[in-house]
Specification:
By secondary structure, this protein is α+β, with helices and mostly antiparallel strands. It is 29% helix and 25% strand. Its EC number is 3.1.4.11. It is an enzyme of class 3 (hydrolase).
Length: 401
């Protein structure tokens, strides 16, 4: 347990105690179940499989990583099946769960090909490039174009030709309002690019969800505009290991027997419900000065949690404010019914409450719901620009019911 002293009114000193991060009740219960296992060397495997929902190959990878990370710890002795296996201590177990590197909320590796194979394929023979005729380039180029005349005419699909159409965000709004089905049909066979309207001279961004939910493949942004929209973009492309490619859901690529397509504005039944529990946070005391958030006391943190997606799923909720604590413990759960989880993003943002001024920013992240790993997870937070903090993280639990 540490303590912090703050000067008040130039002559008084206020002291605050800051307890170290302690395992919440759910973590203690999980550890108790682990330690009461008849076969202690299988307890962690069962926890990873049944509680965390990890597939067998991922369980083996995690156990190997744990053994290499802390060869003298209780978890490593359990993993390696030493002659005297022992249950990991509560501190070891809590440390594992609260580590973003060991226990991340989404998968870290992408599904792309071997980088060495990619490099070899990308190396072109200079002689081949020199001898290639211009006609060959025309065969493999998808020509770009802007709409001429009515938008509906521009969205007509030519079965014998693939096109790339560019629309401004304003044109997209008009098109999806009056011809939403035509937009989706167009994107099933052609490429649609959306770009910011010209009046965004301050480098702000538009909400990309309208473009994504209508199948647009290229959603161009002002990358220097560090706002909510850019955070959604960063979160969306954390999927698939952050490789830069995210496959569209199948329902955006298929057509019904009567030519009907997906309608993001339609009233749809709930497909799944995401339960999110925010246990606690830590790391600000390591990454920030003691007066960064408040000159006279430790910070008063609260967390905002919500969904960005189709209109029916989009919502934001928040925890209560924990006053004067560098290690806030909220232990609050939120429920999010989802009609289209394949296009939903989980938004997480920590704010420091300020009674007289604008609340201070304490970190954020955005995660693709369709790739969330269930169970108790360590969620690293990022700054406004999307750079990951060195130490700041939340302990959370995700459940699909």
């Amino acid at each position: 347990m540490g303590s912090y002293a703050y000067k008040y009114c130039m002559c008084f000193t206020r002291k605050f105690r800051s307890p170290d991060a302690q395992p919440p009740p759910d973590v203690r219960a999980a550890h108790h179940s682990l330690s009461s296992s008849a076969a202690s060397d299988d307890g962690l495997r069962r926890f990873l499989s049944q509680v965390q929902g990890e597939p067998p190959e991922e369980v083996q990878r995690i156990l190997a990583m744990l053994a290499a990370t802390n060869p003298a710890g209780g978890i490593a002795r359990l993993v390696t099946r030493s002659p005297a296996p022992s249950t990991p201590s509560l501190d070891d177990f809590f440390g594992f769960l609260f580590s973003p590197d060991l226990n991340p909320p989404i998968a870290n590796q992408d599904e792309s090909d071997d980088p060495e194979d990619e490099d070899s394929e990308d190396e072109e023979d200079p002689k081949f490039l020199q001898d290639t005729a211009c006609e060959y380039r025309k065969l493999i180029t998808i020509h770009a174009g802007k709409p001429k005349g009515h938008l509906r005419d521009a969205l007509k699909v030519d079965p014998d030709k693939v096109r790339r159409l560019s629309l401004s965000e304003t044109q997209l709004t008009k098109a999806t309002s009056s011809h939403g089905a035509d937009v989706i049909r167009f994107t099933q066979k052609n490429i649609l690019r959306i770009y910011p309207k010209g009046t965004r001279v301050n480098s702000s961004n538009y909400d990309p969800m309208n473009a994504w939910t209508h199948g647009a493949q290229m959603v161009a942004f002002n990358m220097q505009g560090h706002d909510k929209a850019l955070r959604l973009m960063q979160g969306f492309f954390r999927a698939n290991g952050g490789c830069g490619y995210v496959k569209k859901p199948d329902f955006l690529l298929t057509t019904g027997p009567n030519g009907e397509v997906f309608d993001p504005k339609a009233s749809l039944p709930v497909k799944t419900t995401l339960k999110v529990k925010v246990y606690m946070g830590d790391g600000w005391r390591m990454d920030f000065s003691k007066t960064h958030f408040d000159a006279f006391s430790p910070p008063d943190f609260y967390t905002r949690v919500g969904i960005a997606g189709v209109k029916a799923d989009s919502v934001m909720k928040k925890t209560r404010t924990i006053e004067d604590q560098w290690v806030p413990v909220w232990d609050e759960e939120f429920t999010f019914p989802l009609t289209v989880p394949e296009l939903a993003l989980l938004r997480i943002e920590v704010q420091e409450y300020d009674m007289s001024e604008k609340h201070d920013f304490g970190g954020q992240t955005c995660l693709p719901v369709w790739e969330l790993k269930q169970g108790i997870r360590a969620v690293p937070l990022h700054d406004r620009k999307g750079n990951k903090y060195k130490s700041v993280r939340l302990l959370m639990r995700f459940q699909f019911v």
